[in-house]
Amino acid sequence: MLTLVTLLGLITTTYGVGVATADPDTAHVTSIDKLTDQHWVINVYSPAMDSVEALDVLVPADRSVPAPTLYALNGAGQGILKDSGWFEATDIVDFFADKQVNVVSPRGGNFSYYADWIADDPELGRNKWETFLTEELPPVIDAELGTSGVNSIMGMSMSASSSLFLAAASGDLYQGVASFSGCARTTDEIGYQYMKLVVETRGKGKLANMWGERDNPLWAEHDMYLNADKLRGKTIYLSSRTGLPGKFDNNDNVRLNGDQPYDLADQIVLGGGIEVATGLCTRQIAARLTELGIPAVTDLEEPGSHSWSYWEQDMRKAWPTLAASMGVSA
């Protein structure tokens, strides 16, 4: 792989974008594929994972002025489950076409919670996403895109939890954070069982390979109810629905989180049940932030299921808050 990385550093991509040579032991761009003028796929080598990770990247139409960066994390099945992920399941490309912001979305990280796992998993491989997203990747993106150096982060479902603990754990790296339909309580029974459902039932991995057994301090370190004070100073947006059928729970909007096959009954019953749990978790974290005097924009009372039509809506609703966190116009 290192030989391939070195060779790629000496050639240009299909679309003529040069990739400079780089130290093979540091994070660096290996290739860039320009799908359109604004939608690129940037491949970045991660030393922590010893892998090249593909990123969907949107750049603003006007690149004469440095723009901030919004990191958009995907759900559990991105790249595996059909019609799953921001770039497959939403109109994110069109929505951000006229926005003065870079958008960066990893294609990998399936069922990983974008965490640093303590052990390689036979099914899910090596996961050191916390290191990649907070230490390795941002300097590479800043240099490659000429950004302003200001960042925010958003996630949905699995990555809603990730977006909160990554924002809390990385100092001032991310100025704003948006969490849609997540359960960022990792130490209580509902949160733990939800994570087990994602990692083991759906991902076929072993949850103990993430943070060890449940008495390992890493579980408490990533519980955002227990660590809500670490979000102080961030611009925060939290959303989840009640789980009751909502305006997108109809045959024209069957978009449950990428699971195939599925139908409207799955979206209403399964997706509704999941959203009940994430709604409970999100309301608890919102209440804890209020107790601590930490402001947050919340959207928690709308009916609806755990599905992509709602997260596309969340993206729109959260954008003014995220834009303000990065100092750009909505």
What this model shows, in words?
The chain has a single domain, classed as Alpha/Beta hydrolase fold, catalytic domain (Rossmann fold), CATH 3.40.50. The protein has about 325 residues and is an alpha/beta fold. The longest helix is centred in the last third of the chain and has 28 residues, at about 265-290. It has helices spanning about 1-10, 85-90, 90-95, 130-145, 160-170, 190-200, 210, 215-220, 265-290, 310-325; strands at about 30-35, 40-45, 50-60, 70, 100-105, 150-155, 175-180, 235-240, 295-300. It is globular. The protein has a 9-stranded mixed beta sheet, with helices on both faces. The protein starts with a helix and ends with a helix. Keywords: Hydrolase. InterPro entries: AB_hydrolase_fold, Esterase-like, Mycobacterial_A85_antigen. This is S-formylglutathione hydrolase FrmB. One of its GO terms (molecular function) is hydrolase activity.
What attributes does this structure have?
alpha/beta; 330 residues; disordered N terminus; nine-stranded mixed β-sheet; 9 strands; Rossmann fold
| CATH 4th-level superfamily | Alpha/Beta hydrolase fold, catalytic domain
Secondary structure tally: strands: 9
The global form is: globular
CA-based gyration radius: 19 Å
Q: What is the number of domains?
A: 1
Pfam family, one: Esterase
Protein name: S-formylglutathione hydrolase FrmB
InterPro entries: AB_hydrolase_fold, Esterase-like, Mycobacterial_A85_antigen
Keywords: Hydrolase
